[in-house]
Structure formats: structure tokens, C-alpha cells
Amino acid sequence: AQRVTQPEKLLSVFKGAPVELKCNYSYSGSPELFWYVQYSRQRLQLLLRHISRESIKGFTADLNKGETSFHLKKPFAQEEDSAMYYCALQVAGNTGKLIFGQGTTLQVKP
Amino acid sequence: KAGVTQTPRYLIKTRGQQVTLSCSPISGHRSVSWYQQTPGQGLQFLFEYFSETQRNKGNFPGRFSGRQFSNSRSEMNVSTLELGDSALYLCASSLDGRTTDTQYFGPGTRLTVL
Fold first, then answer.
1. pLDDT in tens, A28-74
2. Do B50 and A95 count as a contact with CB atoms less than 8 A apart?
3. Which H or E run contains B91?
């Protein structure tokens, strides 16, 4: 069965420090992977997806098929990055179905 | 474009009752997915509708059902409510639900079952 694991429930860093939010997935094929973010009192929104290979708000994520990982990174955390981050997986042919990890709360301290 | 809207935003029901939640997708989006979010289980996929047909389904009991109308608006129904159905129910819309699409989420309906 496909699964997404985010091992950290809470990640606390100081402003300006590097951030890495971990995501591992289990799927033998080629997945589509996403990072969604939920800021306080806002709806869940897409941050980035691996197929786009773009950097959003300074965040990047690289798909490592060998390690089945899709970690989210940012070199210098900002206080406005504080939010809940979800890694999600979608499998080709499984329309409309995102499989989410449990989420990681990122807390950026001043 | 207006975002995904969900009504009502909050609901309180008692065990055994049934409830209907509504979701209006972004204009032009034909796929609507529903998710249940709880502290213990996280975000779990319920089902997806496309062109008025349920096209994909998660592992939820038959008490959870839905439908989609010709204007792509979708409703979700839960019958014989149980305490464990208390959750935030999110809907998301996309152009056609494929992996190349982005799902846009609504604000959710908070259901409390007493």
C-alpha cells in the first residue's frame, strides 16, 4: 500500500537557520509528490510539486527515488514560514486521491 | 477566480442523525475530492467525483456517500452519525483529478457529533 511518512511532528528552528522537513514514501512506481502548507487560519494550499522543479518562497524539494524521499528544504528560515506542512503522494491512475503524511509543524523562533 | 467554497462551515449533530455537506468547486474544475481530517488519522481520502460520477473511493464505510451535480458542485452525506465521525471535512477541486493537476482546497466543514 502507498504510504507517506513525516517522522517529525514538530520542528523548531531559529530565524535564519536552515530547515529540512523530512518526507518518505512507499510506492514502487513513479509517484507524483507534493508539499502542501497550511498557515494559521488559512486553508491548505499547494507549496510545490516535484514535477515543476521550482522554488517557492525559497523552498525546494528533490525527489530521491533511491531513498524514496522528498524532503523540503530552505536555507534560511523566516518567521512567516511557521505553519503546518504536509507531504502528499498521488499515483497515476488514482484520480483525485492524495495520500498525505501526518504533517509537520514548523515553528520559526525570532 | 473565486476559490473553493464549503457550506456550512460548522455543524453540530447528535449520534444517529444524518448530515449533508456542500462543496462548490472553482469555476471550470470538474473533479471534486473529499477528505476527512482528524487529529488521530490525519487527512484521509473519502472519494472523488468527476462528471457526476464517483470515479475513486477511499476506505470508508457505506454510511459515507456523495454526489456531484451537472455544474460540478458536490455534496457529501453521512448517515447514522457516530461520535468518531467528528472531524474537519475538506473538499478539493481540480481540472480533472489527474496527477498533473493541482488540487485546491476549501476551508472545510467542522462536524461535531454529540
1. 888 899 999 999 999 999 999 987 777 789 999 988 988 999 999 99
2. yes
3. strand B87-94
Tell me whether B30 touches chain A (CB under 8 Å).
no
Q: What is the 3-state secondary structure (H, E, C) of A26-77?
A: ECCCCCEEEEEEECCCCCCEEEEECCCCCCECCEEEEEECCCCEEEEEECCC
- Measured between CA atoms, the residue of chain B closest to residue A88 is B43
CB-closest option in A44, A49, A95 to B90 = A44
Q: Check the CA dihedral B94-B99-B102-B108 and report its sign.
A: positive
Tell me which residue has cell 470508508.
Answer: B60
pLDDT at B91 over 80: yes
Contact B42 A97 (CB under 8 A): no
* B105/A43 touch (CB, cutoff 8 Å), yes or no: yes
Nearest beta carbon to residue A97 from set B3, B33, B100: B33
Answer yes or no: are the C-beta atoms of A21 and A9 closer than 8 Å.
no
pLDDT of residue B109: 98
What cell was used for A21? 522537513
Contacts of B39 (CB under 8 A, 6+ apart): none
Q: Is the separation of the CB atoms in B91 and B32 below 8 Å?
A: yes
